[in-house]
Amino acid sequence: MANSKYEYVKREFEFHRHLPASNWIVVRIDGCHFHRFSELHAFEKPNDDRALRLMNACATSMLEKFPDIVIAYGVSDEYSFVFQEKTELYQRDERLIISSCSSCFTSFYMMKWKEYFPSKELVQPPHFQVEVSCYPEPRIVCDYLSRRQSECHNRNQYTTCFWMLVKSGEGENKAKEILKDTLPKDKNELLFQRFQMNYNNEPAMFRKGSCAYRQKVEASEDERWDVAVAHVDMGPHFWAKHSYVFDRR
């Protein structure tokens, strides 16, 4: 071949990692320096409903674009997408999966920005970093998603307390000192005693995050699978009801 003498470049220097077969692939997209991005665009604290709904809309578009995504979970500026164990997307080439998911999610975010922030200009594009993990069993995938949801609760409870303190006049350093070493029950008590606020009455999207998955919709004689977004506990009851997400092919 005319280019055979140059093949060594690809053979010796281009690295391709193919993800192991028979594993569920989880692609986690996470905002990079997103606190700066949120400050630049004046997001509401501790939660901006518009920004979260924009992330959910991007996740919905991801499920529509990639049929092999069986379920996704998002909180704040991150989303985890679970690809079915037998996916052959890009022959399971990690580099191509990462670049494709990152570019698609970023494109959706920019295209949908005006839908959720009609009076606010997108000053600069968001930057998302991506990491990939592989899990051999649905049970472990469920535990992974449950862990992300647990972190959502802990993070949101803390930031809710933090910003309520700051908005009430406490400095940021003072607010951090007040919350240092507090337990969940302490934070609930603080919100109730100082601000007459019941944390459990906060929107479920803030406390539980967002789960995107396909559900069967029957319309007249047709049957289709549409993407749904829910804000629910991803415990045993949820998985008993939605176990089909791991069985669809």
From TrEMBL:
List locations, semicolon-separated: Nucleus
Chain positions recorded as GTP binding sites: 30-35, 76-77
Q: What is the name of the protein in this document? A: tRNA(His) guanylyltransferase
Q: Which organism is it from?
A: Aegilops tauschii subsp. strangulata
Role this protein plays: Adds a GMP to the 5'-end of tRNA(His) after transcription and RNase P cleavage.
Residues that coordinate or bind Mg(2+) 2: 30, 77
Alphabetized GO MF terms: GTP binding; magnesium ion binding; tRNA guanylyltransferase activity
Per UniProt, the cofactor note for this protein states: Binds 2 magnesium ions per subunit.
Q: Where is the Thg1 C-terminal domain?
A: 140-223
Q: Which Pfam families match?
A: Thg1 (PF04446), Thg1C (PF14413)
Instruction: State whether keyword Hydrolase applies.
Output: no
- Mind naming one GO cellular-component term on file for this protein? nucleoplasm
Per the record, what are the reactions this protein catalyses? a 5'-end ribonucleotide-tRNA(His) + GTP + ATP + H2O = a 5'-end phospho-guanosine-ribonucleotide-tRNA(His) + AMP + 2 diphosphate + H(+)
Principal localisation: nucleus
Q: Name one GO biological process term.
A: tRNA modification
Q: Which UniProt keywords apply?
A: GTP-binding, Magnesium, Metal-binding, Nucleotide-binding, Nucleotidyltransferase, Nucleus, Transferase, tRNA processing
Q: What is its EC number?
A: 2.7.7.79
Q: Does the keyword Transcription apply?
A: no
Q: Where is the tRNAHis guanylyltransferase catalytic domain?
A: 6-136
Which InterPro entries does UniProt cross-reference here? Thg1_C_dom (IPR025845), tRNAHis_GuaTrfase_cat (IPR024956), tRNAHis_GuaTrfase_Thg1 (IPR007537), tRNAHis_GuaTrfase_Thg1_sf (IPR038469)
